[in-house]
Every structure is written in structure tokens, then in C-alpha cells.
Fold F-box domain-containing protein.
Amino acid sequence: MEHVLCMMNPYELLDLSLTSMKTRRTVKRFAKLKPKFMIDFIIFLGPPSITVKRGLVQEPSSAQEKWEFSWTTDQSKVGYEKNEFSVTHNIIRYSENQIEDLMRWYEYIKEVLGCQFHTVFFSLYMFPNQNRLIFEWICSHQKYFVKITIISKDKDQSEDVKYFLSNIKSCEHLRLLGSPYKDDFHVEIPEGRDVLTVRNAGFINYEQLLRLKHQNITLLKSILTNQEINRFLKSWIACESHLDLKTIQITIQSQNIMDVIMDISHEETTDLDTLIKFYYRFSINVTRGYNIYRSDEKMATVVGTKTKDGFGLFLIC
């Protein structure tokens, strides 16, 4: 029986578990012994959905076979579709209460297959009156996440963003893609080690920047001063912060990168092998950079260039 279950996809396992209590117990025992699925929770432009995919796989995300369950209020869209490009099976169901039915189905999947959220992609403007309910429900299941993206449209959703982030313990890959937050907005960024992207980073002050542990940081529309960013670079040089930093992009208040580097010892470089890394990582073309060295001799290259948001400092270690 275990050999047969190993060959089944999550849709087949779930379908089998619904036939009887006995088969449900069998599938649950199998999933407990060999956990292999994870879930993406998505509220974006289309109907709300949860996607079940295999965990601990080596192939790119786009090549993974996935089963997406979504709920629509339009009966004409109910059915099954397959996206050959992304290898995604879409099971579309009718619902008069999309969020409630999504929650109920996730809880069943979690009970049977034992999988947790891997990714949360949440547009706050899709179901604005239910944002708090959804946040509380998500956080009731777990407080540690691999990937979270939160998209907000206006300042009125600032409190929703703060509420959600304040209830998360850790997120390895966090993206805050909202419009400007309220003037008095402030929230601590949950712990994380991988990626942090903040589209409107005016609320992140110097002290909070020093507390960030992410390896790849993007802070757009930052209001940090040239002097504060200079102090940040000096703290990195002195091995006082950001020991694991790999890249950073941050908006600066000057059109000249030397206004930030100031008195930091540096070496100008035009080495193409070094500068091409900025194109691969940030999609920018630069012809000159400045190498700075940490006290343990680790090197980083800093460049400055115009961006859509003004002028940016880019660093690659």
C-alpha cells in the first residue's frame, strides 16, 4: 500500500482520503512518516488560492508540478485547467464565502498531509474587511515562514501590515511592496536570514538597519542620511554588524556616491568581472565602483547610480 501511495500526487491522496475514515487514517499515517508537501497561500489578482507542491525538491520552482485549489464566485469559471508552462493543475470551485472555504480546505489538507505554509502572497486590497481575520488564522497555524509578500495600496492599510508583522516570529524571505505608509508608521521587521525587500522604507531608521540580519537587503525610498549610511558601512568594515551580508540596495540622499563613502578608505575599480555582477544582481550598468575592505579582509564593492526612485547605493560582497 505504501508503494502505491508514494506514486500518488497530492490531489490523488486527498481524493482517496475522502472516500472513508479508514483511508483517511491510512493517508495520514503515510504523510506523517514521509512528509513531502508544502503549501503556498495566495491572495492576489485572481480568486484566493492554496497551492500544494512537493517539498525538498531540487528543480526550479517553475518546473515543480503543483496543484492549485481556488474559490470563485463566478460559476462559469468552475472546473479544471492545466497550465503547461508552469506545470500547474488548477482546480476551481464555486464558493459564496471564498475565504471561509479556503480556510476549511487548508485545515483538511494540513490534517491529512501534514504540510504547512511555505509561501504567503497577500494583497491587502482584495478582501480588506477580512484582513485581520486572515492574519489571525494564518498566525494560529504557524509563526515561522519561508516566504511572505505583502502588497498594500494605501495608507489606511498600514495598521494591517503592522498587525501581521507583529505576530510573525521569523520569515526568511520578506517583501513589503506597499504604497507609502502612515507618517507615524513603525514596525519591527521579523527575524530573517535571507532576503528583505521594502518598497517604501521610510520607517526604517538607522538603529533598525543595524539590527537586520538578512543577507540580501533592498530598502527603496529610504530617508536615511548620507552620514547614517556612512556609519552603516563603517560598522560593516569593523565587523560590528551584518557579518553575513551579501548585497544591499538603498536609496540615498545624494547624486554622488562619494558623499556617502566620505572618509572610508577605498580603491576605485573598473574591473569588468567585478562590475558585471551588479548587472546580474540588480540589472544596472555601471562603469566604476569602489572596493572597501572589512577588518577581516573581506572585500565589498560599492557603486552609485540613478534609479526609478532617485539615486541608489548598491553593494556586493
